[in-house]
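User: Show me a protein chain along with its predicted structure.
Assistant: Here is one chain, sequence first, then structure tokens.
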Amino acid sequence: MGASCLHIVSVFSIFLVFSVPWAASHSPTENFLNCLSYRQNPSYPIRPAIYTPYDSSFSNVLNSYIRNRRFMTGTTPKPLVIITALHESHVQATVICARDHMLELKTRSGGHDYEGQSYVSNSQFVLLDLFNLRSITFDNESQTAWVQAGSTLGELYHGIANNSKILAFPAGVCPTIGTGGHFSGGGYGNLMRKYGLAVDNIIDAHLVDVNGSILDRKSMGEDLFWAIRGGGGASFGVILQWRIKLVAVPETVTYFKVGRTIEEGATGIVHRWTHIAHKLPEELFIRVQPQVVPAGDHKTVNVSFIALYLGSAEQLLPLLRQSFPELGLRPEDCQEMSWVESTLLWAGFPSGTPVSSLLNRTGTPVYAKFKSDYVRKYITKKGLNQIWRKMIEVEKVIMQWNPYGKIMSRIPETATPFPHRSGVKFLIQYIVVWFEDGYEASEKHEGLVRSLYEFMTPFVTKFPRESYLNYRDLEIGNTTDAYRTYSGARVYGKKYFKDNFERLVTVKSTVDPGDFFRNQQSVPTYMWWHPDPNDKN
């Protein structure tokens, strides 16, 4: 009863604000809400989409799509207002009113931003949550689909499977990730060696720009369309939906996951993998996942080899006997299934999980910190043994090594802002997860992943040390509202985008010269170009 009364009070307070448009007020929240009342499309009232801290549902709405408990603490900054857009006109009004009242805008589609940049700011801000905008429309004749930005990968994969048994889409393996942010940062998955990234298969988009206009590919122009496909859409506007080109897969694919410890010869197998994984047929993707496990009275490293093959086990086994005999893959290690069923296993679900589980948008948030690296040179057995010893020392950090090659090597670095193409052997993701509350636990675990990351310096790319935008890491460089410089942004910009960074800055300066769409690692404008006292260049 109490919660219901609080909601009535909240709605009544919003009604009072809306009933006196542009009333004089010193409250940023009231000014913003008055603006929404004035700007809304009468056919699509925005009031049902508004949540303020006075609403009993405010915390539930805010926390429902926070995946990382690092950003669920009592000291985490909260938005002044949450807009859970029910129609594209709500997005337009929110952009205009946040801009006009100098409030920072955060846009969230799935909540998987590793540093909370889609829903946290140290400035006064409004959260635009797109989870209600999640329709997916298929065109079977052209084998394309329009995917709204609030859709998850799981919803997309489920929808594809309902329409066809021989179509798929090359994107990530976590089904709760939102397509809005995932696609705009590149979007890789286990089909990338054959079909490239998600951004390589996007053929149109709808975006709300800083003026509140809805643009498609033609009206936004090729420069902006280029920028949002790998440069991070949040730097340029609000992505409403993507038009994607679906790709062909066989009715039967093969999955396997086998493990080998150091004592079982993992070092030699991984050494061979580093030499051949990027050269294997494009239908085969084998991830390497080393992690520390107990082994009697000591600890060792177990390496999981996790694979998707676009074909039958009967085809896969002789292929690996010839090209990767060190793995020792057996027929009983292989599972044949449809492509959509394989997405469940890659997401960590047990065999036999119903495909409808892909529609589950929720999950249990944990404390976590992530980092990334790219590898362009071979690692010796001596180097691998050094890595294993360091992993045992830090113990709790998992790594995932994801092979590149094939079409990824043929697409030019400048085709999209995502530059990590030719010459890359594999991508590393560093993962540490913990469950203890408190500052000391966070410092301890973040220190562990930082220690392993620093140790890996000799083995990974240099000048710049490349990173993957969707594995956002503020420790590689960031800016703040209090001090924003081009040279500061260039530090992280070169790591994420290499030489594409300058073109992104040019696009940003053209379409959002006032730098309304920003975060701690956004693409800067040339207006940021002023002396940095710490810049030695």
